Amino acid sequence: MTRLNKQEFQAWAYHDLLTNTTRGVLAEYIVAKALGIGDTKRLEWDKHDLDIDGVGVEVKSAAYVQTWEQTRSSVIEFGIGPAKGWDARTNTYAASAGRSADVYVFCLLEGEDREHIDPLEVAQWKFYVLPTSVLNRKVPTQKRIRLGPLIALGPEQCTYDDLKAAIDAAAAVNRGS
Q1: Domain boundaries in the chain?
Q2: What secondary structure does DSSP assign to the chain, as a single string?
Q3: Can you give the pLDDT at residue 83?
Q4: Distance from C-alpha of 174 to C-alpha of 73, rounded to nearest angstrom
Q5: pTM (two decimals)
Q6: What is the pLDDT, as a whole number, of residue 170?
Q7: Which domain of life is it from (predicted)?
Q8: What CA–CA distance (Å, rounded) separates 126 from 66?
Q9: Are strands 103-109 and 50-52 parallel, antiparallel or unpaired?
Q10: Of 27, 2, 22, the residue nearest 12 (C-alpha)
Q11: Which of 65, 34, 14 is nearest to 129 (CA)?
C-alpha cells in the first residue's frame, strides 16, 4: 500500500458522533452551516471557532448521553474560561487572557435515550446564544458554567432555523456595548 484512503480514515476515526471531541466539532459544523459558512474550512486551535463578517463565534457543546456506559445522564456544563487565544492567521497569542469571541453558542444535544439520539438531526439540538459581553460582565473569571446558571444569564434559546438571527442579534448587542 502506498497511500491511505481519506474516507476510510474518516469513517474509522469519526464514526461515533457522541464522543466529546467529535460532537464538539460537529456542533461547530452545525453552527457554520446555519450561518452559511459551512464551506469554510475549520482552523484547529484558533482563538475562536468561527468568524462571520468579523464576528467571532465560540461554539460549545454538551449532551446528556455519552459514548460510554452511564448509570445516569451527564450534568450539562460548558467551558467558558478566559484564555490567551492563539490567532492562526498571525501565529501569535493574545497578550493576556480573555474571551476572544464576540458571541458564544452553547449547543445541547437533547435526549436521554441513546437508541434514539442522532447528532446529525438538527432538531435534536437546542442552542443558547449569548453575547460575550454578558459573560464578561456577569461571570468575568468563571471557567465553567452549568445549564441552569447559563439560562439565568438570559441567552437567546433557539432552534437551528433561528440560529443565524440569534447570533446576529447577540453580535449587535456586543457592538452596542
Answers
A1: 16-164
A2: --S--HHHHHHHHS--TTSHHHHHHHHHHHHHHHHT-TTSPP-TT-SSSEEETTEEEEEEEEES--SS--SSPPPPEEE---B--EETTTTEE-SS-B---SEEEEEEE--S-GGG--TT-GGGEEEEEEEHHHHHHHSTT--EEEHHHHHHT-PEEE-GGGHHHHHHHHHHHHHH-
A3: 86
A4: 34
A5: 0.92
A6: 96
A7: Bacteria
A8: 17
A9: unpaired
A10: 22
A11: 34
Is residue 80 within 8 A of residue 142, CB to CB? The reply is yes
CA 51, chain centre distance (Å): 13
Tens digit of pLDDT at every position of the chain (177 positions): 689 999 999 999 999 999 999 999 999 999 999 999 988 888 887 788 899 999 999 999 999 999 888 899 999 999 999 988 777 777 788 788 889 899 999 999 999 888 899 999 999 999 999 999 999 999 999 999 999 999 999 999 999 999 999 999 999 986 665
Of 50, 54, 55, 6, the C-alpha closest to 27 is 50
Q: Which of 48, 53, 23, 22 is nearest to 37 (CA)?
A: 53
40 Cβ contact partners less than 8 Å away, ≥ 6 residues apart: 32, 50
The three cell numbers of residue 2 are: 502506498
| Predicted local confidence at residue 168, as pLDDT | 96
- Which residue, 102, 142, 150, is CA-closest to 126? 150
Predicted pLDDT of residue 176: 63
